[in-house]
């Protein structure tokens, strides 16, 4: 029984040695043969790129890099304070949902800083930086704030 398994493994190994991978050349629709090692390296690079993109959120003209805590509008960096970034990220994570004043204050500042006036000022500053046209960050009267879906 063990020798049969060994023979199957040997057959698979021989088949891999003869395995040919063809890569389509996008410039002239021709094919070229590449090695298994090159193929695996290309797959690994694709996987790394997709993992990088998981840490980037696109929202309209805005790009949020969650690794570096940076926000860009039309590829120009927007300088946000740590609290502004935290508040904006909270809105991004909950886009389309109304967030009450209490929810925002608790998530960004903590319960000890429960002050609606401070929140209004912070929202105004955030709007001026990330939503100067006032299209996406909406005040829901009597309820809170909401980042609309695009």
Report what the structure shows.
The protein is built from 5 helices and 8 strands. The protein has 150 residues and is of the alpha+beta class. The strands form 3 sheets. It has a 4-stranded antiparallel β-sheet with strand order 3-4-5-6, covered by helices on one side. Strands 1-2 form a two-stranded antiparallel sheet. A hairpin with a 2-residue loop joins strand 3 (56-59) and strand 4 (62-65). The model has no long low-confidence stretch (mean pLDDT 78).
Q: Order of strands across the biggest sheet?
A: 3-4-5-6
Q: What is the radius of gyration computed over CA atoms, rounded to a whole number of angstroms?
A: 26 Å
Question: How many beta-strand runs?
Answer: 8
Shape: elongated
Weakly predicted, low-confidence segments: none
- Determine the number of helices (DSSP H or I, runs of at least 4 residues): 5
Average pLDDT works out at: 78
Beta-strand portion reads 15-25%
Major sheet details: 4 strands, antiparallel
Distance between the termini: 62 Å
Approximately how much helix is present in the residues?
40-55%
Element pattern in H and E: HEEHEEEEHHHEE
- The assigned structural class equals alpha+beta
